[in-house]
């Protein structure tokens, strides 16, 4: 689960991590007033669930409140396209107005999970403000990585080693030690899968500041934090993805016209692959979960049909111990409820598979049965071509 | 022969009184697995379906001699269940539970790594040695005894692969679902090592997906060490970058984790890669001919 920069900064500041003075604004008028409070010179930052905002024109330095208001009017409601958003971009609904600071040095700092070691790791670099993947490619020696032992936690001397490696010394080095330790504390207590401060800066006046911050929460741990669901900005998500989330379905909108419903993430990906192989274009990724139930199948079917781009539906359920007749009933009910006229191909495997097929064929729907994965994909592509 | 489990495996089920715990206990027993005990804290002393239930894993081990645990405990208590099975000195813990917080798994995995207990999962379908023992949620009927070892990060895609193997007459020695979470116990290489040593396994089919670098790691290991033919399939060739495809791991980020790169690396390391999910069985047959 992602949150906005301003929310990440709010959380970090409760852990004693210094952030620039700022205000979140929902209107151009608020942006202007906030800019006035900052004394005119400030940074106007579009809040979206993606990075790369600077290069896309989503972050601007302004010099007086009217200019701030002009920039805000241009940004609000605009779909900002960055290299992380995809071509459709993300709508700007909130703007962060922040004091501008004179920067002496910039660093990169993050804590995330290292899958190889199954531990959290701290990554720091003196090349702040840049994409860390880019630094990793161009100058891997400038990246410092520390794997954190879960039994001892992150120790002060280790944090100091990192701060020194960044070239800091004296009081600001000790400030950085505190900042690193507090970031780790925040990561654990808030169940973060990523905290990224980029850039972390030292100002001309010699203070540390988290100039930009990104936090992602571990989806599996959201249940432990009652406040998280309210922090979600639904304007940043596809409406169908939101509906799918309510039913615990993993749905991702794609660009094609064949709606897909599959149980299991791996099989769902393989289904997209096989559709493409036979010349089809999937409209979505949808995983109803390994043990698909009748209710989930019905909801998933309705979600797929809400997408106007969908012209045909391919259902691939490897039920295993799930009963295919029950799944078939779920599909028929959902299709009848929304009066689905579209061609459907169902490939099912599992117990009572013959009963399931019979139910589907007698349902009056425009449905064919796929005997296996390849056969199903070929049939739906053919039905779509004829339609 | 087989790896990890066989007809003599004595299994206890943590979370046996839950809905899916009980359902799958019945399914496994119907397949022929020896389920000797259940563990649900607070319900010790009762019998469920004739299986004695204990309050702790240690007690269950003491009274029944169980050496393997199958875990169905819901996410808030699942990491604790893994820790408990490690402390009781079990040989193997297979955690089916999906959705365990990462922070809990960091600790559980670190403790488990220092114990004598092997861990498979979490968020996995489990393990099956066809005709002998089913320890998980996979459908038993698609499997058939034989000599191909199967290792996979996926659930239902593994069923698809196994069905294709069975359909062309290639039975399986043991199938291991290692799970789709970022933190798991046994990884590809740990399972490949066991297949390599197992006289009952003649070849291995490996199923991977986009994201991370586990498949590449396995590929290099195969090149250096594997004495038996390996075939593979990687799901997600057509997945767009930056979108998380269901599993926590299945995402292409910063140009890393692409299916094409994984396929190339596997091929360079001598693995026969099926380019289509419809030809997984054929790819295995082809690798066996080499």
List the helices and strands and how they pair.
The complex is a heterodimer of chains A (387) and B (290).
Chain A: H1 5-14, E1 22-25, H2 28-37, E2 42-47, E3 59-62, H3 65-75, E4 79-80, E5 90-91, E6 94-99, E7 103-114, E8 119-125, H4 132-138, E9 143-147, H5 156-165, H6 170-189, E10 192-203, E11 208-210, E12 213-217, H7 228-231, H8 239-246, E13 250-253, E14 258-262, H9 265-277, E15 284-287, H10 294-306, E16 312-323, H11 324-337, E17 344-351, H12 353-361, E18 367-369, H13 373-386
Parallel strand pairs in A: 14-16, 16-17, 17-18
Antiparallel strand pairs in A: 1-6, 2-3, 2-6, 4-5, 7-8, 7-10, 8-9, 10-11, 10-12, 13-15
Helix pairs in contact in A: 2-3, 5-6, 10-11, 11-12
Chain B: E1 10-14, H1 19-31, E2 34-39, E3 47-48, E4 51-54, H2 57-64, E5 68-71, H3 75-87, E6 92-95, H4 102-113, E7 118-120, E8 126-129, E9 133-136, E10 145-152, H5 156-167, E11 172-177, H6 188-197, E12 203-209, H7 214-225, E13 230-235, H8 259-268, E14 272-273, H9 280-289
Parallel strand pairs in B: 1-2, 1-5, 2-4, 5-6, 6-7, 10-11, 10-12, 12-13, 13-14
Antiparallel strand pairs in B: 3-4, 8-9, 8-11
């Amino acid at each position: 689960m992602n949150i906005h920069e301003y929310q990440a900064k709010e959380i970090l500041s409760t852990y004693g991590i210094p952030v620039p003075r700022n205000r979140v604004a929902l209107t151009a008028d608020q942006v202007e007033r906030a800019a006035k409070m900052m004394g005119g010179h400030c940074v106007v930052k579009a809040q979206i669930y993606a990075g790369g905002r600077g290069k896309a024109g989503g972050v601007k330095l302004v010099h007086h409140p009217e200019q701030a208001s002009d920039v805000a009017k241009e940004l609000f409601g605009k779909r900002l396209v960055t290299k992380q958003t995809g071509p459709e971009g993300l709508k700007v609904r909130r703007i962060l107005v922040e004091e501008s600071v004179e920067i002496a040095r910039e660093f990169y700092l993050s804590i995330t999970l290292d899958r190889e070691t199954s531990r959290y790791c701290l990554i720091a670099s003196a090349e702040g403000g840049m994409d860390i993947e880019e630094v990793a490619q161009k100058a891997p020696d400038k990246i410092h990585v520390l794997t954190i032992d879960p039994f001892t936690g992150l120790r002060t001397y280790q944090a100091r080693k990192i701060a020194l490696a960044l070239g800091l010394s004296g009081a600001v080095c000790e400030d950085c030690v505190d900042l690193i330790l507090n970031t780790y504390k925040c990561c654990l207590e808030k169940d973060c899968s990523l905290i990224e401060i980029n850039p972390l800066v030292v100002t001309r006046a010699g203070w540390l500041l988290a100039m930009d911050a990104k936090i992602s929460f571990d989806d599996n741990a959201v249940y432990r934090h009652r406040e998280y669901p309210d922090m979600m900005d639904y304007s940043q998500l596809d409406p169908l993805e939101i509906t799918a989330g309510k039913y615990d379905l993993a749905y991702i909108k794609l660009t094609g016209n064949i709606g897909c419903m599959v149980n299991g993430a791996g099989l769902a990906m393989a289904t997209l692959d096989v559709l493409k192989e036979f010349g089809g274009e999937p409209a979505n990724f949808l995983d109803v979960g390994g043990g698909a139930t009748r209710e989930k199948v019905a909801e998933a079917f309705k979600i797929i049909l809400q997408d106007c781009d969908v012209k045909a539906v391919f259902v691939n359920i490897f039920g295993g111990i799930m009963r295919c007749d029950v799944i078939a009933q779920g599909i028929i009910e959902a299709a009848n409820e929304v009066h689905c006229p579209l061609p459907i191909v169902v490939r099912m495997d599992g117990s009572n598979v013959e009963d399931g097929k019979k139910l589907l064929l007698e349902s009056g729907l425009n449905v064919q049965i796929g005997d296996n994965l390849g056969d199903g994909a070929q049939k739906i592509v053919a039905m779509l071509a004829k339609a | 022969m087989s790896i990890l489990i066989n007809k003599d495996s004595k299994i206890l089920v943590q979370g046996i009184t839950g809905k899916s715990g009980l359902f799958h206990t019945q399914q496994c027993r119907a397949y022929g697995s020896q389920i000797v005990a259940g563990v649900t804290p607070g319900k010790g002393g009762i019998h469920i379906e004739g299986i004695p239930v204990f309050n702790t894993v240690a007690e269950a081990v003491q009274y029944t001699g169980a050496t393997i645990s199958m875990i169905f405990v819901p996410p808030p208590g699942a990491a604790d269940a893994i820790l408990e099975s490690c402390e009781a000195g079990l040989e193997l813990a297979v955690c089916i539970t999906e959705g365990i917080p990462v922070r809990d798994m960091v600790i559980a995995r670190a403790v488990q790594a220092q114990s004598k207990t092997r861990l498979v999962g979490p968020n996995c379908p489990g393990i099956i040695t066809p005709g002998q023992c089913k320890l998980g949620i996979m459908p038993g009927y698609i499997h058939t005894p034989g000599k191909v070892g199967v290792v996979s990060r996926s659930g239902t895609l593994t069923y698809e692969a196994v069905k294709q193997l069975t359909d062309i007459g290639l039975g399986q020695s043991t199938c291991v679902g290692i799970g789709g979470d970022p933190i798991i116990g046994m990884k590809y290489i740990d399972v490949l090592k066991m297949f390599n040593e197992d006289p009952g396994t003649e070849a291995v089919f490996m199923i991977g997906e986009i994201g991370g670098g586990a498949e590449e790691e396995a590929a290099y290991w195969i090149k250096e060490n594997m004495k038996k033919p390996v075939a593979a399939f990687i799901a997600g060739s057509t997945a767009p970058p930056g979108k998380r495809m269901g599993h926590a791991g299945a995402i292409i980020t910063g140009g890393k984790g692409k299916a094409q790169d994984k396929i190339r690396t596997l091929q360079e390391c001598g693995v026969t890669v099926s380019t289509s999910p419809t030809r997984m069985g054929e790819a295995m047959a082809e690798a066996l001919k080499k």
